Amino acid sequence: MSNFTYKVYGDVFSGNCYKVKLLLHQLQKPYEWIPVDILQQESRTAAFLQRNPNGKIPVLEFASQEYLFESNAIMYFLSEGTDFLPNTRLQRSQVLQWLFFEQYSHEPYIASSRYLIRYLKGAEKYKTVLEEKSKPGYAALDVMEQHLSRNQFFVGNKYTIADIGLYAYTHVAEEGGFDLSRYSAIKSWFAKIESQPHYIAMG
Amino acid sequence: MSNFTYKVYGDVFSGNCYKVKLLLHQLQKPYEWIPVDILQQESRTAAFLQRNPNGKIPVLEFASQEYLFESNAIMYFLSEGTDFLPNTRLQRSQVLQWLFFEQYSHEPYIASSRYLIRYLKGAEKYKTVLEEKSKPGYAALDVMEQHLSRNQFFVGNKYTIADIGLYAYTHVAEEGGFDLSRYSAIKSWFAKIESQPHYIAMG
User: From the UniProt record, which GO molecular function terms apply (chains A, B) (predicted)?
Assistant: First the structure.
C-alpha cells in the first residue's frame, strides 16, 4: 500500500514528464516517481501498455489504479480548482489552446530536435530531419515571442499550466539546436517562471 | 452587427474545422461560417494572423471580437457545461487525454496523409513521406480499435467531444490511404456517432 496519492511514470529529462513534476512540486503534492527508460523500450512492455496503450510517458497512476496519460491532460487534472488553471471558461479554453499549440506546432519540432541530438546522439545522422524541423520550430518560437512581448504570461497575465506546458521544452530548446539569443520576451518569461514559488529545475 | 453569437473561420472539408461545425450543429447553436482557403494562403494574411498568430484554421470569433484557436480547445469551450463534456474532473481529463492523443499521435499521420493526397494531389510526389506516416497512423488506429472493442465511446461510455475529435479524421482516413476494413470496433463506433441527434456529415 503506497503512502502517495499519485505515482508518476516518467523520465526526469523529458520535457513532457518535467511538466508534471514541476506542477506537482508547485502544488506541494506528494508523489512517487517511477523512472521509465524509453531508450530501453520500457514504455513498450505489456505491463506499461496496460497503463498507456499508446506506450508513451508520462503516465499518472491514481491510488485506485486508474491511469491518465498525455502530459497536458495530466496537468489539467492536477490544476483544476487551483490557481494554476483560470476560473473562467474562456481563459480555461485559452490555456488549452496554448497547450494544443504546444503539442502540435512546437513539440514535434523543438522537443523532437532535442531528442534526436541529446537522446539519440544523432546531430550528424539526422542532419536533414533536423534542418526540416528548424523552420517550423522557429515559427513556434516567433508566435510565443510575439505573444510574450505584449503579455506577462500566456493567459490572463497570470502564471498557469499554459506557461508550464510551453516552458518545459522551450527552456531547453538550445539542446535541440535552436538559438534563443534574439528571443528577449521569451527569456524574460523564463526568469518570471523560475522565480515562482516552489519552482524546481529539470532533472 | 452580426445576428450570430459565433463566427467560425474554416474549411468544411478540414477535419479540424468539421469538429467545430458538427459540435455546433449538435448543440443547435447558430453560427456564421467564413470560408478560408488555406491553399490560397488565406490563413497567412495579416488580417488572419490577428485572429490566430499561428495561421491555422479553425478559429472561433466571439461577438466581443475575441478569438479562440485550436479545434480541440474550441470544442472544450463550446461543450463545457453541456452533455458533450463529462461532469467529473477525471472524465474531463480523460476527454482531454484522447484529444491530445488525437493531435499528437493521430492527426500528423492520418490527417496529414489525407492532406497530401486530397488537397495537394501528391500521392506520387509524397510517396516516401506517405510511407513513413503509414506505421504510426496504423498504430493510432490500433490504439483506438483496442479501446473501442471494450468501450462504447472514448470516455465514460457516453458520446463526448473526445469522440467528435477522433471521428473527424478517422472516418475519412481512407482518403489518406488507410485501409479500415479490419477495424470493426472503429466502424461500429462510426455508426453510433452517425446516429446521434443532429449529426451532420462533413462538407
Answer: transferase activity
Candidates 3.20.20.80, 3.30.70.360, 1.20.1050.10, 3.40.50.720; CATH matching B89-194: 1.20.1050.10
Q: What is the pLDDT of residues B137-164, one digit of tens each?
A: 999 999 999 999 999 999 999 999 999 9
Q: Which residues of A touch B107 (CB under 8 A)?
A: 104
Cβ-nearest to A68 among B68, B94, B108: B94
> Does ipTM top 0.95?
yes
**Closest partner CB to B108 (pick from A56, A108, A140):** A108
Q: Would you call A147 an interface residue with chain B, using a CB distance cutoff of 8 Å? A: yes
Residue of A90, A99, A101 lying closest to B77 (CB–CB): A90
- What does the domain layout of chain B look like in residue ranges? 6-79, 89-194
C-alpha cell at B164: 467528435
Contact B171, B190 (CB under 8 A): yes
- A96 contacts B72? CB cut-off 8 A: yes
Among the four given CATH numbers 3.40.50.2300, 3.20.20.10, 3.50.30.40, 3.40.30.10, the one describing domain B6-79:
3.40.30.10
Q: B73 and A96 in contact by Cβ < 8 A?
A: yes
Read off the pLDDT of residues B59-83 as tens digits, 9 standing for 90 and up: 999 998 899 999 999 999 999 999 9
